[in-house]
Every structure is written in C-alpha cells, then in structure tokens.
Amino acid sequence: MIKAGIVGATGYAGAELVRLLCGHPQVELAAVSSVTFEGRPVSDVYPAYYRLCDMVCGTQEQAVKKSDVVFAALPHGLSQELAAECYSKGKIFIDLGADFRLKDERTYKEWYGGTFIDRELHEKAVYGLPEFFRDKIRSAKVIANPGCYTTAVPLALAPALKNGLIEKSGIIADCKSGVTGSGRKPSQNTHYPELNESMTAYKVGCHRHTPEIEQTLSIISGDDIKLTFVPHLLPVNRGILATCYAKLKSGAAGSDIAKAYKDMYGGETFIRLLPHGRTADIKNVRMSNFCDISLHTDKRTNTFIAVSAIDNMVKGAAGQAIQNMNIIFGLDETAGLTAMPPAF
C-alpha cells in the first residue's frame, strides 16, 4: 500500500483528497495536517466523514515523515519549501497550489508576487495535466497539479489548436465556476445573500490563471498563444463550464474538427467527447474525474465553439492529483477514480 499524506487537509481540495484517497484500493491515508484544526479529527470539521475518516490532524512534519507521497492543498506561496523537503527525502510531492505551475519566474512574480526559492527544483517540476504530459509525469518527483480553469480550457481547445484548425489569435474562454473554487474561507462575494440567485463576472481580463492557460496552449500549439479569459461565479457548489470561442481556419470543416478530437482523446478514459447535438453540462460530471467536451460550429460567423465541463474539486483538483499519483507509481490510472457521476 502506498502511504499518502495530505498537508492542508481541511480546505475544500484537501477534504476532497481525503474522500477520494480513503476509497483508493492501493493507498493508505497515513497522515493529515491542518494548521487551523491541528489536534482535531477530520470528521469534526466535515461530519460527513464520521466513522469513515476520524484521523486526527497532525503537523506538516508528521505528514511528510509518514508518507511516500505528499499532497499539498495550500494557498500559493506556501509549497516551495515543503516541496524541497519532500524532494530531499525521496518523497513524491504533488502540489495543488500554484507555486510550480508557471515556468517563467518573471511571470510568477507579475501574477502572484513571489519568487522561485529553488530554481533547479522548478526546472524539475512537471506540469501534471496527464492527457498532455503523461510521459513526463511518469518519472516526476514534483508535480504542479493544474487547477480548474487551467484544466477545462486547454482540454477544450488543444486538439483544434494542435491541428491548425483554428486561428491562434482572438480566442475567448468564457468560464463559469462553482463557489468551492473560491476556497473554504468566506468572503463578501461568496456570502450566501450575495451569491444566491446571482451570477457575476470577476477579475475580468486580469485573472491569474490566464498566463497558465496560455502557457499550456502555447506548448500544445508550438506558438505563443494569447487569449481573453473571463471567469464567472455560479451559485452552485461544484463545477466548471468553459465555453471557448475561436475563428475557424479557411477550409477547416466540422469533420476535420471531429477527427482531431477523436484522434487526440479517443483513448483517454477521463475525456468524454459528446455526440453531436449534446452539450457539456456540469451536472453530468459532478463528483467525478471526467471532462465532458462538446463541439459546435456557428457557420454564419465561421466560429468554432468548444464547451467543456469538469468538477472543479475532482478533475480540477483532487482527482487529477490522484490521477498523477497513479501514473507515477505505475498503477492503473483510473484507480480510486472510477465512481460514476450521480444522475441527479
């Protein structure tokens, strides 16, 4: 059994890791840590886990010592020193935060206000989007686990970009997120009276996930990609819906688009290409590691539209982290992630 530890186990992403790892057939949850709730059982914080996971929250040091793989579900800026410690001790480190996602330090400083403490470790870190970077993930010791928007948008657009079927300029990603994407700490815009019966755009044109999305799409396309990214907050707990728009290249047909997506994703268990006439819906991926993608064309304006839906807490966080762990340890990639989405 692989021994897993979670640092930051009482935030939403950490709690989702607890839920999924407790059901993993080849993993033992060895330790959980929480600064806020140290000394208290996880089931005190999340009563749904009562008698299923009553593990007491310990320290970060205990989590590292007891584990073969350490998952860090921490805010940005708190993972770099922990990653270095795990690396020096031969532990696999999977970071659900943003500290290792951006390859350029100047970009990280611009969008997150931080610096790279250990540049060599950043160079060794692998971006953990398995559908694109599986071969590099297999031998990685440090994984930068992508988040929700940064998973949903590239998965929606990559095949069309890679095959030169859409224009590389003028791409728009219009996205909606469930409120868990904002984290467990309450704020004014996530306060129930503000959120309920409402939907609003936020951080328009300046969301810090923008350069990360552009970085992935640039690698896939082999060119420098810039796009307009606008996120919105939905009054639901879970889900990311990414509706992405791009102009079709001259001569690109719907059959070319369909073939490109089938060729790239046909063997991917967690990508579900929807049949013509259906549209991706966050309800249908809830509590699962699936990404549903539907493909559409507006012939009047020569616009390609790709819609992707994921659960931001699973494929957009904890599930993807476990998918990465499975790859690194040579397990079936679907281990612990096979539960069907609820139908309603």
Brief description of this entry?
This protein is an alpha/beta fold and 344 residues long. It has helices spanning 12-21, 42-45, 60-65, 80-88, 105-112, 119-124, 130-137, 149-162, 192-195, 210-221, 254-265, 314-328; strands spanning 2-7, 27-33, 69-72, 92-95, 126-127, 142-144, 171-177, 200-201, 227-233, 240-247, 271-273, 291-298, 303-310.
Description:
With 344 residues, the protein is of the alpha/beta class. It has 2 domains: 2-146 and 315-328, Rossmann fold; 149-311, Dihydrodipicolinate Reductase, domain 2 (2-Layer Sandwich), CATH 3.30.360. The chain contains 12 helices and 13 strands. The strands form 2 sheets. It has a 7-stranded mixed sheet with strand order 8-9-7-10-13-12-11. Helix 7 (130-137) links the parallel strand 5 and strand 6. The longest helix is centred in the C-terminal third of the chain and has 15 residues, at 314-328. The radius of gyration is 20 Å and the shape is globular. It starts with a strand and ends in a 16-residue tail after the last helix.
Instruction: Output the CATH homologous superfamily of the largest domain.
Output: Dihydrodipicolinate Reductase, domain 2
- Inertia-based shape: globular
Distance between the termini: 34 Å
Strand content: 15-25%
CATH architecture of the largest domain: 2-Layer Sandwich
Uncertain residue ranges: none
What portion of residues is helical?
Answer: 25-40%
The strand order across the widest sheet is: 8-9-7-10-13-12-11
CATH topology (fold) name of the largest domain: Dihydrodipicolinate Reductase, domain 2
Per CATH, the class of the largest domain reads: Alpha Beta
